[in-house]
Amino acid sequence: MTNYLPPSAAAWTGRQTDPTLGPEYWYQKMELLDLRQAISADPPDLALLGYACEEGVRRNQGRLGAAAGASEARRSMGSLANHLGPLRIADAGDITCLAGDLESTQESFGRAIVRLLAAGIFPIGIGGGHDIAWAHYLGIRSALAGRPGTRLGVINFDAHFDLRSFADGPTSGTPFHQILVDGAGQHGYLAIGIQRAANPPSLFQTAERLGARFLPLEACGANAQDVQAAITLVQHFAAAYDHLYLSIDIDGFSAAMAPGVSAPSPVGLEASFFFPVLAAVLGTGKVISCDLAEYNPRFDRDGITGRLVARAVEGIARAAFNSGVIKTGA
């Protein structure tokens, strides 16, 4: 993979602690997984894979800077306190975009996802534009290729449907349209946090035509009733599928807690809604892989968006382990 950058120990730093206490922070726990080498017979349980690409955002007329999302997210994750117990986590490096070649970047990312899944490693992709979703799906599709009839459900926390036409090529606004067309009725899509002001009527029509389901932002309040209704919706949706692919677009949150995104919004998801619903998605035990997209550190303030990304990754890791999605952390 000519567009692969292996992980670096220099990316993982943090507060100095007493060595006798063991790994107090993520940077002390992080393993390095170089995908140019054979994966050992005793691999880590979870691996972070960066998608250092913003070509899809450029094509979708968004503001640039998301290509640096994975590298900056590592800074925030390194300082997370370690409460992962026996769970082994690794950095698998980055897939980069060369000369604007989005399509080959997506193919390379997909091949890397296949390698991780084949080794029994739970992947967490970190973008980069939301075109990471098609790239990620390519890997999941290949990993499931030997299981005919397998139904895949896609859950996306997002302000946008990302169901735009891909007739003129993929962008950060097309991935879930691509996935549903490719799935030919075998795949389903649930978008949580959809904002009407951010999606023209034609996209609602596309969602209806493709059988996509969605929960509007107005139904994503922080109150217990909305949270429980969303959890019930997730559980009913998951029951129809063999596996789930989870994607999180950071621009689904309000700019108050996520200013560093490609398409900021004054309104959006709140943490008190997102984290319990996130735990419920992982709690189904069906999530095969997940990613986070559209973190744009160029526009972040005081690192707040990077910290949100880090907390989301930590939430995924803990929930995946606690729900049994990851079974090898002993």
Automatic annotation (TrEMBL):
PROSITE patterns (alphabetical): ARGINASE_1 (PS01053), ARGINASE_2 (PS51409)
Binding residue positions for Mn(2+) 1: H130, D158, D162, D249
InterPro entries to which the protein is assigned, alphabetical: HutG, Ureohydrolase, Ureohydrolase_dom_sf, Ureohydrolase_Mn_BS
UniProt-listed Pfam families: Arginase (PF00491)
EC numbers for this chain: 3.5.3.8
Record field: catalytic activity: N-formimidoyl-L-glutamate + H2O = formamide + L-glutamate
GO molecular function term, any single one: formimidoylglutamase activity
CDD domains linked: Formimidoylglutamase (cd09988)
Pathway noted in the entry: Amino-acid degradation; L-histidine degradation into L-glutamate; L-glutamate from N-formimidoyl-L-glutamate (hydrolase route): step 1/1
GO biological process: one example: L-histidine catabolic process to glutamate and formamide
Domain of life: Bacteria
Known cofactor(s): Mn(2+)
Coiled-coil region(s): none
Cofactor binding note from Swiss-Prot or TrEMBL: Binds 2 manganese ions per subunit.
Residues involved in Mn(2+) 2 binding: D158, H160, D249, D251
Record function comment: Catalyzes the conversion of N-formimidoyl-L-glutamate to L-glutamate and formamide.
NCBIfam families registered for this protein in UniProt: hutG
Similarity-based family: Belongs to the arginase family.
Protein name in UniProt: Formimidoylglutamase
Species name: Neolewinella lacunae
